[in-house]
């Protein structure tokens, strides 16, 4: 017999990993002990492949047990071990599981970073990925983009999934819910509160209904209790937008009766949904639901939209005249935001570098993987994760005059028509070329990022208003002058919202002001630049 066909017997550490996996559904505590023993043995023997597998198993068990900090540490150690030995499959699984962990604890930028890294690894040469795993990564990434407000990108990701990637009914359920949530956000974005629904809104409402029906069909074939709360919350939103608020409240209360206060993601979402529904007509009942959601977050360690919840509760307490309670909640909000604050990086720290020639330099490979996770794979621009890290550092310089900062928010005019008429492949080409034009303008300390969907962002520090306006107009004109293949008679233009930052600005307030200027540019006929100074009305 060929000696190459004779496999060595599994080591004791490998056997412990197998035992731990078998015990996961039977006794999590015993599974945790087996995984810990496997980690200790593999580390002592410098068996890096087994160590990566053991730490991935240990982190998953710790996450199921609610030990979020321990799970974070295990996944980080596992990623380092997998990078050290070049185990791409382990890197992929660890990145996906770490993304799930960060999404549960409310760290959305970190979650997006990990899922984007996992998606990048799906295309690694020579790596055979089961369709179910690739589908899981893409659906997880779509769910995070939903929570970050990038609904168009969600639908693009889900449309690219093939049938094999959604053979698992559980994935079909999650994909349907992600699609429903994306259409809900697009519906709310295009329809101001209390206004009559537009034809586009009707289309999103119908698409949301179809997506929920798909999720229900998947759940009929494979009952998954963990998604009942999320699906009921979305069903209630559909009922509200269909003019049936009373039915929505009944649905949410019936769903809450089933979970009976369980400290789960679904239970939290149900209390949040019911609280939002009751806020307008019964603030006292809304407060009770929000406090119930907060208690479940504290019990489970799941911080789903926790800062937003604390802010809503503080507002309700203030309206009710309970100022000490409102102050206490705002203090908790400040503490929460401080814990989420990330290490501030200079823009140059994020520049990707070539892969090292020496594959044994695993620390360098880890650093490169971290950098690549901050790059949008389609456009090559920085992503939201990098923006969240860099912009606060640039804003801090504003406290020392003469430093100043300008934000240019670009949106491709009628981009949906490009996708619908010429396909998403052509739309991607348009995005890449415009991104290339933006990168050429990002000289010195300027920072270019893909903000979401067809929206691109250019941050320009230490410049004057006339220079920022000249830059914005030059960028608009260069994009309009781009030439496209004759078989695709495209005329691509952009609308630009320009604003300046102040030391008091947050990331949200700065981008909201740039977005208002962008909205004004679109209302005024598109293909133009509108400037909105801080604290003033917009002006063309």
Explain how this protein is built.
The protein has 540 residues and is mostly helical. It has a domain at 385-532: Reverse transcriptase/Diguanylate cyclase domain (Alpha-Beta Plaits, 2-Layer Sandwich), CATH 3.30.70. The chain has 22 helices and five strands. It has helices at residues 12-23, 28-44, 48-64, 68-85, 88-104, 108-122, 131-147, 151-159, 169-190, 199-221, 228-241, 245-259, 265-278, 283-300, 306-319, 323-340, 362-372, 384-396, 415-422, 424-441, 465-480, 507-523, and strands spanning 405-412, 447-452, 455-461, 494-500, 529-532. Strands 2-3-1-4-5 form a five-stranded mixed beta sheet, sandwiched between helices.
Residue runs with pLDDT of under 50 for 5 or more positions? 1-5, 341-360
Helical content, roughly? 55-70%
- The strand line-up of the biggest sheet is 2-3-1-4-5
Specify the number of helices.
Answer: 22
Stated plainly, the CATH topology of one domain is called Alpha-Beta Plaits
Approximately what portion of the residues adopt beta-strand conformation?
5-15%
Order of helices and strands: HHHHHHHHHHHHHHHHHHEHHEEHEHE
* Radius of gyration computed on alpha carbons: 25 Å
CATH class descriptor of one domain? Alpha Beta
Q: Give the CATH superfamily of one domain.
A: Reverse transcriptase/Diguanylate cyclase domain
Mean pLDDT: 80
Largest sheet: 5 strands, mixed
What does the overall shape look like?
globular
- Give the N-to-C terminal Cα separation: 80 Å
Please state the structural category: mainly alpha
The second-level CATH architecture of one domain is 2-Layer Sandwich
User: Would you report the number of β strands?
Assistant: 5
């Amino acid at each position: 017999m060929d000696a190459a066909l004779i496999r060595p017997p599994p080591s004791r550490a490998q056997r412990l990993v197998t035992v731990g996996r078998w015990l996961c559904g039977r006794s999590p505590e015993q599974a945790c002990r087996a995984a810990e023993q496997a980690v200790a043995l593999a580390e002592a023997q410098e068996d890096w492949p087994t160590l990566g597998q053991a730490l991935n198993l240990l982190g998953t068990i710790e996450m199921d047990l609610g030990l979020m900090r321990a799970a974070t540490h295990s996944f980080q150690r596992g990623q380092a071990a997998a990078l050290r030995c070049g185990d791409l499959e382990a890197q992929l699984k660890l990145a996906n599981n770490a993304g799930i962990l960060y999404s549960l604890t409310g760290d959305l930028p970190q979650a997006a970073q990990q899922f984007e890294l996992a998606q990048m690894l799906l295309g690694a040469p020579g790596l055979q990925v089961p369709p179910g795993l690739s589908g899981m990564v893409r659906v997880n990434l779509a769910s995070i983009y939903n929570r970050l407000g990038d609904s168009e990108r969600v639908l693009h990701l889900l449309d690219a999934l093939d049938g094999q990637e959604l053979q698992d009914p559980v994935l079909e359920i999650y994909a349907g819910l992600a699609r429903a949530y994306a259409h809900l956000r697009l519906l709310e974005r295009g329809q101001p509160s209390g206004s009559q629904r537009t034809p586009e809104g009707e289309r999103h409402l119908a698409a949301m209904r179809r997506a929920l029906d798909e999720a229900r069909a998947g759940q009929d074939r494979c009952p998954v209790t963990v998604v009942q709360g999320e699906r009921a919350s979305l069903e209630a939103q559909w009922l509200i937008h269909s003019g049936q608020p009373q039915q929505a409240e009944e649905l949410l209360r019936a769903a809450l009766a089933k979970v009976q206060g369980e400290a789960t993601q679904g239970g939290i979402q149900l209390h949040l949904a019911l609280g939002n529904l009751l806020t307008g007509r019964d603030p006292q009942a809304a407060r009770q639901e929000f406090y119930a959601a907060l208690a479940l977050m504290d019990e489970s360690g799941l911080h789903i939209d926790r800062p937003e919840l604390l802010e809503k509760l503080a507002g309700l307490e203030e309206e009710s005249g309970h100022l000490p309670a409102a102050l206490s909640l705002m203090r908790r909000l400040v503490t929460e935001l401080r814990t989420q604050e990330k290490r501030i990086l200079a823009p140059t720290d994020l520049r990707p570098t070539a892969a090292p020639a020496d594959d044994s330099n695993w620390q360098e490979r880890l650093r490169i993987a971290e950098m690549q996770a901050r790059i949008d794979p389609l456009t090559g621009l920085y992503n939201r994760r990098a923006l969240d890290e860099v912009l606060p550092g640039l804003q801090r310089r504003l406290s020392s005059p003469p430093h100043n900062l300008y934000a240019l928010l670009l949106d491709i005019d009628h981009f949906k028509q490009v996708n619908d008429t010429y396909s998403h492949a052509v739309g991607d080409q348009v995005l890449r070329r415009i991104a290339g034009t933006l990168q050429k303008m990002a000289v010195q300390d300027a920072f270019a990022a893909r903000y979401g969907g067809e929206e691109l962002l250019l941050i320009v520090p230490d410049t004057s208003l006339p220079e920022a306006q000249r830059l914005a107009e030059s960028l608009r004109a260069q994009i309009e002058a781009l030439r496209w293949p004759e078989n695709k008679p495209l005329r691509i233009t952009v609308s630009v919202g320009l604003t300046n930052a102040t030391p008091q600005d947050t990331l949200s307030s700065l981008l909201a002001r740039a977005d208002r200027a962008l909205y004004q540019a679109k209302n005024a006929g598109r293909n133009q630049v509108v400037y909105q100074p801080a604290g003033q009305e917009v002006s063309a």
